[in-house]
Design goal:
Length: 482
């Protein structure tokens, strides 16, 4: 039988062993604590690299050529005229204008999503894949309003992106952009979501891009049309615009907006939009006062109603204040547009308005928004001056109406806006036509001065202004005469 020999360990030995174990554990813990941040940073870096490797093959370079006719100035040298005649006074020449941008493949059959402005009026489109293959591209659908287009190439079994959910984005969340800035293919940049719901002007008068994502991710010319990705590698936006000379300010179309339009672009070549047929504006305290409402009144003011539109057919009028759509409150033009957009074309909607202090409900059959070109006009004459308003005005005559392409002969045309005046601050322009002043029709200078004479400095003058084929309300402060 085997005997087990017991070893007696004194108290000091036990303490020594305990100390060694403690120091060993502490050292291991210290090393772990020191290396943990580096390991986390390495893991994060690897995840960004993994996203670039995974999504990169689905990002394409778009080169465009647009043939532009240019006209050169006259030759005034008498020697040229003597020998070659006046045919050298001017000549035209068609030259290629090149452009570049980005896009990403959303379908294995060769459908590429990009910005409309990247391929606008292009006579030739060349698509270059990340593996170097080149294809001719064809625009099969485009939409100026949302700045989106679908380009088709003849290829299949292509790598594609995964479309995410832009509604889940949070301000401060890390995002990644892949594109071809300045023609440098497959450039990857990283930043954060700086803000959501931004509105930026399009360059088309009276129209803005709405609900854009703002990011400090480096976006440069050539990035337009490329994907903005979350840390899962999902597309959450289409990189679209930068503010020139600004640092760290770029914008992207939310991918959820794009997802609503992709099928229309592919199948119809355009985007169908639900349409009420009203020009709308915010209810400011000044406007609320003129309509006999509390200063904090909510809703959306109807500045004009389009002829034969769903709104006109239902009975909605200029000056109505829309407060609800299908029993849901609307407190801004953006909210109203969003709610109408979510109603299918052909469906009926209940529109609740305030008119003369009373609530009225209309049932409106939502229509399809027509394509309308916005045109501006200018007018250079001037006659009567009113210091109180910061405006010079003149009665509209048949000649003026013809020059401004007005549908009628009435109202007062603005011939000058005093710089720095309230009218200037509110955006009034020469060539605008005033139809009402404080809800009173004004078709003569005498009537205009009669309305103005009742006002005191500091009072609000509510003007109904006609511009670009529709009307809207403008409140301006009456100024003191110096």
């Amino acid at each position: 039988m085997m005997k087990i020999k017991l070893v007696k360990i004194n108290r000091n030995t036990i303490l020594a062993i305990a100390l060694v174990l403690f120091l060993s554990i502490s050292w291991v813990g210290a090393v772990s604590a020191e290396t943990e941040p580096y390991l986390a940073l390495e893991a994060f870096s690897n995840s960004i690299a993994d996203i670039a490797e995974t999504v990169g093959p689905a990002v394409v370079n778009i080169d465009t050529v647009r043939m532009v006719t240019t006209q050169f100035p006259s030759f005034k040298d008498p020697i040229f005229e003597r020998f070659f005649g006046r045919e050298f006074e001017e000549f035209r020449r068609t030259i290629p204008q090149k452009g570049t941008g980005s896009g990403f493949i959303i379908n294995q059959e060769g459908y590429i999503l990009t910005n409309e402005h990247v391929v606008r009026k292009a006579d030739k489109i060349k698509i270059t894949l990340s593996d170097g293959r080149e294809f001719d591209g064809e625009v099969i659908g485009s939409d100026v309003t949302s700045d989106m287009a679908i380009v088709k190439i003849k290829a299949d079994h292509l790598p594609t992106v995964t479309l995410g959910n832009s509604d889940e984005l949070r301000v401060g969340e890390i995002v990644i952009a892949i594109g071809n800035p300045y023609g440098l293919q497959q450039t990857v940049t990283m930043g954060v979501v700086s803000a959501k719901g931004r509105s930026i002007p399009t360059g088309i008068e009276g129209h803005v891009y709405r609900n854009f994502i703002q990011t400090d991710t480096a976006i440069n010319p050539g990035n337009s049309g490329g994907p903005l990705l979350n840390i899962k590698g999902e597309v959450v936006g289409i990189n679209t615009a930068i503010i020139p000379y600004a640092q760290g300010i770029g914008f992207a179309i939310p991918i959820n907006m794009a997802k609503r339009n992709i099928d229309d672009l592919i199948n119809l070549g355009k985007v169908r939009r639900s349409w009420l047929g009203v020009y709308i504006q915010e209810v400011t305290p000044e406007i609320a006062k003129q309509f006999g409402l509390p200063e904090d009144a909510e809703g959306v003011l109807v500045g004009d109603v389009v002829e034969d539109s769903p709104a006109e057919k239902a009975g909605i009028k200029r000056g109505d204040i829309i407060v609800k759509v299908n029993d849901e409150e609307v407190n801004s033009p953006g909210e109203l547009q969003d709610k109408i957009r979510d109603i299918d074309i052909g469906e009926k909607a209940i529109i609740e308005i305030m008119r003369d202090g009373k609530a009225t409900r209309f049932i409106v059959k939502i229509g399809e928004m027509p394509t309308v070109e916005e045109e501006g006009s200018e007018f250079l004459k001037e006659k009567v001056f009113s210091v109180q308003t910061g405006l010079k005005v003149e009665a509209v005559t048949s000649g003026i109406a013809k020059e401004l392409e007005l549908p009628w002969v009435k109202g007062l045309v603005i011939t000058e806006v005093i710089p720095g005046s309230s009218a200037d601050d509110m955006g009034l322009q020469r060539g605008d036509v005033i139809l009402e002043a404080n809800r009173i029709e004004v078709s003569s200078v005498g009537k205009w001065e009669e309305v103005i004479s009742r006002l005191e400095p500091g009072d609000t003058l509510l003007l109904l202004v006609f511009r670009n084929r529709h009307t809207y309300y403008v409140p301006i402060k009456v100024e003191k005469i110096d």
